[in-house]
Amino acid sequence: MYRKTTRQELTTLKRAFDRWGIFDYFKDKAVLIREEKNSKIREVYLLPIGLELMVINSQPYYGGLMVGEIKKKFLPSMQGADLIARVSKKFPYIIVNEIAEKLILYGRNVLGQSIIETTEMLNENEVVILLNVKGEPIGIGKTNFAGKSLLQNGKATVTTLVDAGCYLRNEKKGR
Amino acid sequence: MIFPSSLESDILAKSYGYDKWLVERFLQYVPNVKCLLEAMNRHPQQYIRINTLKIDSKDLIMKLVSKGYELEDTISHDVFAIKKNASLLPTGATTEYLLGYYYIQDLSSCIAVEELEIAENQTVLDMASAPGGKTSFIAQKMNNTGLIIALEPNLMRIKSISFNLARCGVMNTCIYKMSGQQAIKLNLKFDRVLLDAPCSCEGIISKDSARKTNHKPEDIEFCAMGQTSLIESAVKLVKPGGLLIYSTCSFAPEENENIINSLLGKFNIEIEPIQHGSEGLTSFGSFRFHHDLKKTKRFYPHIHNTLGFYIAKLRVNN
Question: Which of A7, A22, A85, B292 could form a disulfide with B271 if both were Cys (CB 3.0 to 4.6 A apart)?
């Protein structure tokens, strides 16, 4: 069911958008929450301004673009990651090599030796955007280590949370 | 409508593995049926449509060429024919595809959307949206502004639409679980309506050769009943002066020209010309259609290098 954000959710989202460097992008967009009964997941949807009332009144199956979800914090979706990579001038990221790109697109985790570059001072359990060598967002990950420990050989130093290959896998399941 | 079989249909049906009744029908109205059947025995030409919501043509072409693709321009500036794919991955498994930079879509389907004359900030209805290819093309032409309502009664197919729209970064679309006939419940009228009607799919035999023999005459009759109901609903949903595009991937005149012809006496509509394709039929067996049906267009694999397709463009007046 689609609904407006609560004051707390709006605060969470504004903080997150600021952290991800996309605060200004959302100024001329409407944001709605979609929540299923008995579910803890609150999906965040983006729409052109003016459509939000229609969506709340008519409750379509899907309306707008899902850019992430709120649990305790905001976690971007694949489309959220795409927006961030396009629009933001500063966001935490990890660039991986071509072999890792293919594995990530199958939902696999990131090994330390396949990391080419990271933002400075990444902490453990930090959510990052996974980029390929061309700077394209291919997934979202969570760091298992901090700083240079991310580069250690032979270990999965980043857990892949979402990857662009999910569209193919989900589509096949959906059929 | 069934015709008595002839020696020519017997020979062609046997040579190409079709039921005779279907070939005999083709002989009534398709130019050079032998070439049609040969073309439908080959893999169809693959086309991709650039998703300009995410990337421009120049950048995407550079990326694909560097991966071993050879692309050729088409009559639509957003659509390219894939002449060669020397990469290791199928077209539907590249990173660029997964990132929504392009959509694999036949040129004929893209022409249907081009003819809708889409502009920003319109309200558009896609009455049979799955899997979302035309919907995402409409969204791209609207630059994610305005509103698109996409309808689909089947839940699994709704999921396909949502995956494709999300992948393409579409923001201005609402998907409703309903059939086109129920669209009146939305209490909206639209600048543009697209009805890509469920049909007997004769035009996509090249993708599914089982249809050569599992397609039956009663399928055409059944589909035509549904199409009539849908298009009558569609006309009522268009704002005065708005456009309705009706399309199918069938060759059957009962699903195409006859459907449009049946509207002419009932509604205040005008058939508008379409730039590309072969002229629509004005007769088929004992059927006689209004001469304006010539303005509707047919697409044949052996003539246009597309899947079999039919497009009619209707201006709905007061």
Answer: B292
- For B107-316, CATH gives 3.40.50.150
CB pairs < 8 Å spanning A and B: 91
From the list A51, A101, A138, the residue facing B147 with the nearest CB is A51
pLDDT single digits (tens) A39-57:
888 999 999 999 999 999 9
Closest residue, chain B, to A168 (C-alpha): B98
Same domain, yes or no: A65 and A101: no
Pair (A166, A132) in one structural domain: yes
pTM: 0.95
ipTM over 0.90: yes
Q: Smallest Cα–Cα separation from B170: which of B143, B150, B130, B149? A: B143
Cα end-to-end span (Å), chain B? 35
Report residue B293 CA to chain centroid gap: 18
Nearest CA of chain B to the CA of A123: how many Å?
28
- Of the three residues A54, A87, A120, the one that is the final residue of a domain is A87
Say if the Cβ atoms of B172 and A138 lie within 8 Å: no
Instruction: Tell whether A108 and A159 lie within a shared domain.
Output: yes
B35 is catalytic: no
Q: How many domains does chain A have?
A: 2
**Residue A144 sits in which domain range?**
93-171
Residue A82 and residue A102 in one domain:
no
| CATH classification at residue A144 | 2.30.130.10
B174 contact A CB<8A:
yes
Summarised one tens digit per residue, pLDDT across range B114-152 is 999 999 999 999 999 999 999 999 999 999 999 999 999
**What would the pLDDT profile of B17-76 be if each residue is shown by its tens digit?**
999 999 999 999 999 999 999 999 999 999 999 999 999 999 999 999 999 999 999 999
Cite the residue boundaries of each domain of chain B with CATH code 3.40.50.150. Answer: 107-316
Instruction: Report CA torsion sign: B61, B62, B67, B71.
Output: positive
CA-to-CA separations, A44 to A77, A79, B145, in angstroms, rounded: 9, 11, 19
CB < 8 Å to B99, chain A: 82, 136-138, 164
Structure tokens at A151: 């580069």
Choosing from A64, A87, A110, the residue where a domain stops is A87
Q: Which of B96, B151, B174, B187 to mutate to test the interface with A (most CBs of A within 10 A)?
A: B174
The Cα B74–Cα B80 span in angstroms is 6
